[in-house]
Design goal:
Layout lengths: L6 H20 L7 E5 L5 H9 L4 E4 L2 H10 L8 E4 L8 H7 L2 E5 L2 H10 L7 E7 L15 H9 L6 E8 L7 H20 L6 E3 L6 H6 L4 E4 L1 H4 L3
The protein binds pyridoxal-5'-phosphate (PLP).
Pyridoxal-5'-phosphate (PLP) binds next to strand 8 and helix 9.
Length: 234
Amino acid sequence: METIGIGLQGRLLEVRHRIAATCAAAGREPGSVSLLAVSKTFGPDSVREAHAAGQMAFGENYVQEALAKIEALADLRAQLQWHFIGPLQSNKTRPVAEVFDWVHSVDRLKIAERLAAQRPAGLPALNVCLQVNVSGEASKGGVAPAELPALAAAVAALAPGQLRLRGLMSIPEPTDDAGQQRAAHRRLRELLEALRQQGLVLDTLSMGMSADLEAAIAEGSTIVRIGTAIFGAR
Ligand SMILES: *Cc1c(COP(=O)(O)O)cnc(C)c1O
């Protein structure tokens, strides 16, 4: 992807155009897909620059890096939305429960229980997605599809004032094949539809990254998580 020369705000505009064009082609409302700017490894100044161009939601993967960045951007706290999207160990849940608005990467009940227990009273419920291992890669995080219904039911039953289950997230195995991209994203959408059949009220499909956002939107994504195409190569 060509990222040299047009600057961060230009790249952000390009990504917005890709989202709008894909929504138009798919017959979807442009407002039905939100853009999460994945700022991992980029400093607070890059976040400020994106914010100045109207971007409010940012995704982070590493707890320590994120806490430092959020602190450095404290003056913008009321305007920014912070989403934790990386692997989460149980000994790191407390700061995540205390400062983030969303967690996309919950893949076991213990993590959800800790986030719910540690969410400070007085803050809105923490929005969470369950990460699903749609490609069956042994090395990847995420709950296996066969175990998803039980996990979703258990997480949905946790204190709703502390934690609100919103939907599903995936990081499929990278491929350049548009058909394979679509198939992996379709699998996540079908899993969400099955949970709705089960009676859960869910509105979020967090899927699609820089290389496959078109396939993800065509299959129903409601949040695309875009790093490289906005901030440049890591
Ligand atoms: C890094 C990351 C992204 C962004 O990936 P790009 O290919 O840079 O757009 C999205 N989601 C997760 C979970 C990530 O770790």
